[in-house]
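re: that complex we talked abt at group meeting.

here r the seqs, copy pasted straight from the sheet so there may be weird spacing, ignore it
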Amino acid sequence: MLIVMRTAATEADTARVVDYIKTLNLTPNPIPGAQRTAIGITGNTGALDPALFARFSDVCEAIPISRPWKLVSREVKPDDTVVSLPGPDNQPAQIGGGNFGVIAGPCAVESPEQLMTAAREVRKAGARFFRGGAYKPRTSPYSFQGMKDEGLELLAKARAETGMPVVTEIIDTRDVDLFAQHVDVVQVGARNMQNFALLEAVGSIKRPVLLKRGMAATLQEFLMAAEYICKNGNYQVILCERGIRTFETMTRNTLDLGSLPLLRRLTHLPIIVDPSHGTGDWRSVPALARAAVAMGADGLMIEVHPNPAQALSDGPQSLTPANFAKLMTSVKAIADVVGAKL
Amino acid sequence: MLIVMRTAATEADTARVVDYIKTLNLTPNPIPGAQRTAIGITGNTGALDPALFARFSDVCEAIPISRPWKLVSREVKPDDTVVSLPGPDNQPAQIGGGNFGVIAGPCAVESPEQLMTAAREVRKAGARFFRGGAYKPRTSPYSFQGMKDEGLELLAKARAETGMPVVTEIIDTRDVDLFAQHVDVVQVGARNMQNFALLEAVGSIKRPVLLKRGMAATLQEFLMAAEYICKNGNYQVILCERGIRTFETMTRNTLDLGSLPLLRRLTHLPIIVDPSHGTGDWRSVPALARAAVAMGADGLMIEVHPNPAQALSDGPQSLTPANFAKLMTSVKAIADVVGAKL
Amino acid sequence: MLIVMRTAATEADTARVVDYIKTLNLTPNPIPGAQRTAIGITGNTGALDPALFARFSDVCEAIPISRPWKLVSREVKPDDTVVSLPGPDNQPAQIGGGNFGVIAGPCAVESPEQLMTAAREVRKAGARFFRGGAYKPRTSPYSFQGMKDEGLELLAKARAETGMPVVTEIIDTRDVDLFAQHVDVVQVGARNMQNFALLEAVGSIKRPVLLKRGMAATLQEFLMAAEYICKNGNYQVILCERGIRTFETMTRNTLDLGSLPLLRRLTHLPIIVDPSHGTGDWRSVPALARAAVAMGADGLMIEVHPNPAQALSDGPQSLTPANFAKLMTSVKAIADVVGAKL
Amino acid sequence: MLIVMRTAATEADTARVVDYIKTLNLTPNPIPGAQRTAIGITGNTGALDPALFARFSDVCEAIPISRPWKLVSREVKPDDTVVSLPGPDNQPAQIGGGNFGVIAGPCAVESPEQLMTAAREVRKAGARFFRGGAYKPRTSPYSFQGMKDEGLELLAKARAETGMPVVTEIIDTRDVDLFAQHVDVVQVGARNMQNFALLEAVGSIKRPVLLKRGMAATLQEFLMAAEYICKNGNYQVILCERGIRTFETMTRNTLDLGSLPLLRRLTHLPIIVDPSHGTGDWRSVPALARAAVAMGADGLMIEVHPNPAQALSDGPQSLTPANFAKLMTSVKAIADVVGAKL
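got the structure back, here u go
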């Protein structure tokens, strides 16, 4: 923490702040400057709250200098975290540490036929993880809310046939045990990124968690949400950039690809990209997917539906199996250029 | 829904879309124009998904023209909803319909002394509702997380002594019965505004719900979140504008006061303002509180702490009891000018 | 400037940065901490560029601690700046220092009749400044672009008859002499807030400048734009909050009223509010205007048109003369409560 | 334009709107629906202003359905626009239509040595256009403002030696003739994207214009700014995505790569990407540059400085010549995969 005094502050004003810092059992380090005095604070083990100094009318600003995250930081753990699960063809399905994992499937589980067709098609094209929503968080209470536990059973069948681990979203703390039992990767959606009760709940189970960035979450908040999960004992967290909300409305979201190289420097957790939600238009999905692999992401999450025009949810952003297969060809070619293992 | 065809679309292209609309059991109304053809769709009872038309390459745009909310709409219920609870001095505590309700108290319940002092002071200054957080949603897992059920008990004591109904935040669906039993107004916080499981849960109890606007929630999403609660049978919903996230960082949030007159036209639900979170700095709270009453808001939610410098949460945005009392004087004077009952 | 080293930085790494600071003729003040070392820099007369330290891979962050503005700062000039011009009834028209000035008139000068009617009506209702656009910056090249120099002449006639000083927007550096000659208050619009050539040009004339906040301008950039004008010798600058661009689209802009108390603390310049652009809907203008006066703004800028339905520009946000007169009544009542001179 | 009536509107209310539309010499097409009536308007040649209908209290919404841009639209001109100039080695330097053009050079022209070194190095690595700012728009009036006309002369020398056409920014309408004479591609910067006087001025000269997207400009506004230039007779416009302003502050801007495939569908103009401003950190530039080429952009604009640590402007986002050369290798490899001519 750095305390910046007002230019008009006297030595006595500064002394008052210095004394207050000592009452917190911390060490004040005054730095007199040409225009104003600053006071560096040392001795704290965690982040201090700038709020503590807001009451001193002679304090101009209190600037935090430690970063509040710990367990997710690359400064704490320099090597990449790899999430590895039993996968198809008796080979592991992996994300992170140079392994590029593709998660594909429909937005929502709609029927046995729809789900099994999707699973077979994405597997054939090269996906190694399967996605499908059983519990759907929808903006409108009048929209399709998912097949719920029946959906989980269908996902289990898809895994049994194709060998792909399944990724599906949890939306209620009361479902944690159910998910721990039936699901391979538990997804926390963008709208629940700061549902701290849910973060703590999934932090206490032994399943990898795919954490989507909230629509208006800063990267710092994103990392702090991951920190909640790790703090409860679960270090298998995959970060997923899926677009943020900005003033632009011609795209569904603004995919913040620029966050990738920065997150890579800050954290050891794997980082994947969801271009389907990131743009909201299937015609833009392939270009953004190519971008993600060219940048060095650890994977992709892509919505594929056997018949997007009839999809009960997110049809316009879903690829057909044929377009997904075509996309996988260029994804592989770019992965070769950047040295990613697919 | 209005379908706008591309300028290059032929009559056959348009016919294909017209036919598709018929398969949905809806009525297509083609409107040939100078530059392009549009097709109005009628016969739908709810909102249609624009996504349905994204597959037609000759469709330029699909524009929804119905509004997706119903139960919260002023078109459905023209008169104001009033939330009324037993209040201090054997008079009701009311929000809405010309009644201006002030909710005040500390961000978090910290101790019996802190809470009772706060309750007495805000009551003395004219507040008729008491707030205090027992379960705290915090960005960092290392911050104070609240006194939890012990906090609920202390709030009950404050109500017993002062007569003020208590408002406190719920953060987990598993706590709904507990809150239904002990709390007068159940608050759903900004971070949980789209926690649909929680919205459904509080929609099924018989307690007024104070719903805070999410940090990046559009007004449409805000109203749809209220719709979730009403749809489950609970029509006692108070909307609370508390600031949105924008590019500006010198204030904690950007208080969207311009939303008030618009929401007033769109919905019958009462609308209050939280200037404490809206700005994040106690020095700016009084000006924004005066603005809210001058605009015709139905109430205020203000953080007051007996000793803000020692607050465990949100100290910098909390007023002292003396500053709160001073603010109430000017709030009353402006309420007189605009004809609000305080 | 405070330099924060990485946790892994060695003493030698820190020494390299210390040496570099010395080459800039500045004084490094190392502060060793529990987790990492920070280096306070003193001896600089202006703001340093954090960029200078981005090359050191052991530097975690470089945090500016001086504020970059000077001439506009309340730390430099504690008393309020007042803009005062000859006004109607041989009384000055004033903005700032407790004087609440109302600027009203149509968005665009359209015809002699329209302009003179508007001028008489707003004067009658109590406005002391008159606005009207002669050169219009329009998003579309196909929209009405203003009456240009003919418009300036009509504005001069309105001033001659009513005594109100006129406020109108400049959009081209080539027009500066023309404006200096004919206009009382030169407006720099939101889209030109960082047109630095224009800021320098209006800084060199002897006319008050009304500077509108850019749609995506931070408060720091807003103050720096004012600094450009002052630096060129013109200290008569009025800041105008007129709404910022956010994700919300149901209002034209998001009026950032929360910036007012903060700007008041940071600068001595007067601050007014434009609720017409701030919301884009005449039905919301009165509520926001009342809010501004209740908060302690130094004035209002309001669009009034004799016949909004026929307006060539911004009709939907313009008040009729009757609605403007009604608004002025409540503005005066609230001004009395907060002690502003109208 | 589609007019949506309120649910409570009577037939007489609708008739009033229908009559008004006829007074505008347009054709009303009423579409009675289950919940409300809508009125499609046809017969207009340009975009109508929704504002026209804001006065009718029974009108719920007025929705524009024509797009306001024309000359820049792919609907008007389906084939790609190619900007072609005499380039190095007696080969044209081209952007658009499958030609991938790389523009590189320092942020600012600082000295003959700095500029010539930069020019030689970027040419050697494969750039075919050279950039360098002579007139610098800076947030602070106390920052380096550029070498101005002396800078233009140095750029001409760089062109003479290397054969690369030069790209440099104009910031004042008074300089248009000077630029038309000395500069190959005239850049309009982000802060001037809606400086309409400047857009008209560069629209009237015979030089390609590189138009940067404004920090808070919607894609629609971006296209309309290009429309201003084309309307004045200059169709050689290159669009440049350079990052938008969002709530995220850990990156300098948020590079909106998702806009690329959408712009590609909407306009025939070439679209390039500036990853240097897009992220603000040289360490993130290569990943974003690779993303742009993988997506199918028409080119890149990259800041390269012989000695970034000593740069007078934007040092932290500038690549060294060595890093730029390394980047060009992977850009070429990815260009091969996606079929772009480099």
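couple things i noticed - The interface with chain C takes residues 2, 4, 6-8, 29, 31-36, 38, 40, 42-45, 61, 63, 65-67, 75, 216, 245-247, 249 of chain A (CB under 8 Å). Chain A has a mean pLDDT of 93.
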